[in-house]
Amino acid sequence: MSMENCANTKPKITIIPAKTRVERLDPMSVAMGQKPKIRVAAYARVSTDHEEQESSYEAQVDHFTKLIASHDDWTMVDIYADPGLSGKNTKRVQFKRMIKDCEDGKIDLIITKSVSRFARNTLDCVQTARKLKADGIGIIFEKENLDTLQERSEFVLTIMASLAEEESRSISNNIRWSVKKKFQEGKVILNTKHFLGYTRDKKGTVLKIVPEEAITVRRIYAEFLDGKSLKEIAEGLERDGIASPSGRETWHPSTVKSILQNEKYKGDCHLQKTYLPDFLSPRRIKNEGFAQSWYVEDSHAAIISKETFDMVQQEFQNRQSLRSTGETGCGKFSGKYPFSGMIVCGECGETYRRHQQYNKYKKYYIWVCKRHENNGAEYCKSRPIKEEALEKAFVRALNELIGDKERILEKLQSATVSEITDSCATVINEVNAEIEKLQEQMMELLMKRNNGEITDKEYEQQSQQVGMKIDQLLMRKEEILSEQGKVQLASYRIEEVTKLLQTGKILEEFDRVMFKSLVRKITVLSNKEIEIEFECGITVRETL
What is the C-alpha to C-alpha distance for residues 129 and 187, in angstroms, rounded to an integer? Predict the structure, then answer.
């Protein structure tokens, strides 16, 4: 046949059907006339972690096992299940493992109950389906009867995912309303799993003290008031083999600090200290006035007295102000050495730093003004002081107090600490009464708006004015509580010194623990004289 005749002949067209993913990955079985089985994985998830939902989780696992077994051309890879996690949570471990197995070529098909079980974030759901589809991996959503490998599936999936996301929003709003209602009623919502000192009763409604753990909490508070640093307290707990709130052997200073600053140990509860900006946010954010919060007093049994708690908060402030440097205005409390952060230069106001020195006989330690060391004598002319001289000066000063205990005790007992404390308590009660009246006004305004007696604009203006008055009273209350904390801490220090003086026991050598608990600071007046200020307010000058 000539080339011209071939050109006029109608071309013969053969349709070559598309291969399935299984056929592409296993061409040898196809060539031998064997049909490869589809490797199927199932993904199961329940929406909440309530016990009644666990049956739903088990039912899904059982359902998918039977479903895969009922298809002769299917073979099970695995059932990936994330029980008790939210669909909006992108940290689902099993879900991520399943996607990784898809990328590694171990899965040909995924089946799941519904779009809402797979993901409630529309973008995440569509992107995941699109990515898997590009690799020839389909997702079958049973409830919606949807296969992502089919035409127009992405359009339908987008609609379904949007509906699931809206359902998630509705559920989130309902949960928020329920939690907010509990907050307004003063009901404490606390996970005690990693909370030292408390557990819940059998009904899960009342916080109960765990006596063994409460001992550890009280120890932490006592050691902090005795002058120990957060690091020293943590090291002591580790050394004694006491488990941390998470049950581990390791303690971190930040854990100790959180226990010392948690109001729940004094029987109060600050509700909604953190919040979710929106229902899709996976992480809670510290509430710094962006959302409403509630403070409930005497909501449960206390491990620490309110006085002790307030003294600890005041001690935090004292340490911060005392360790603040004259040059930068900030600093850090250190418990590495007894004199760390305790020595202040009388000339420039800077703190001292420890150094090791050597002579031909032995090594010794000195303390040097930071400004003198960093900037030179033209900025500060103070001289180094030997650590041994400081230790001896403290021993002499304390023994002088013990030797003159009758006069010192009379001076301490004349302090009007109890009168000041009672005065603070009276003012706080008055402030609380004013706040309660304003809150009643706020409720009346809300009722008037709901009944149509005032407009929304009038309600907003009037409630804003009442709210400002409440904020001012709360600030005043904080100031009074801070002042009361100072007084109570001073009272505590006076009691400590009084107990020591009454024993009449002379100090033979330097005692690190006693120094940390009794001394507030040492001011260097010259290279030959220092002033020791005790926590009870007494000051003593000593020569070096």
Answer: 43
pTM of the predicted protein model: 0.50
* Average pLDDT rounded to a whole number, residues 34-51: 72
Phi-psi sector, 502: left (phi>0), alpha (psi -120 to 50), beta: alpha
Buried b / exposed e over 424-452, threshold 16 CB at 10 Å, is beeeeeebeeebeebeeeeeebeeebeee
Per-residue model confidence as pLDDT tens digits over 281-292: 556 677 766 667
pLDDT confidence band for 91 (50 / 70 / 90): low
Query: Is pLDDT at 419 greater than 50 in this prediction?
Result: no
Question: Does the structure show a pLDDT above 90 at 90?
Answer: no
Residues 6+ apart with CB under 8 A from 544: 385, 386, 389, 390, 393, 527, 528, 529, 530
Q: What is the dihedral of CA 383, 388, 394, 396, to 10 degrees?
A: -110
Which of 346-351's residues contact partners 24+ apart within 8 Å by CB, and which partners?
Answer: 346/382, 346/523, 346/524, 346/525, 346/526, 346/531, 347/380, 347/381, 347/382, 348/372, 348/379, 348/380, 348/382, 350/325, 350/326, 350/380, 351/323, 351/325
Q: Measure the CA–CA gap between 526 and 346, rounded to whole angstroms.
A: 8
Distance CA 239, CA 97 (A): 40
Would strands 109-112 and 38-45 be described as parallel, antiparallel, or unpaired? parallel
- pLDDT of residue 390 exceeding 90, the answer is yes
Backbone angles phi, psi at 121, to 5 degrees: -95, 110
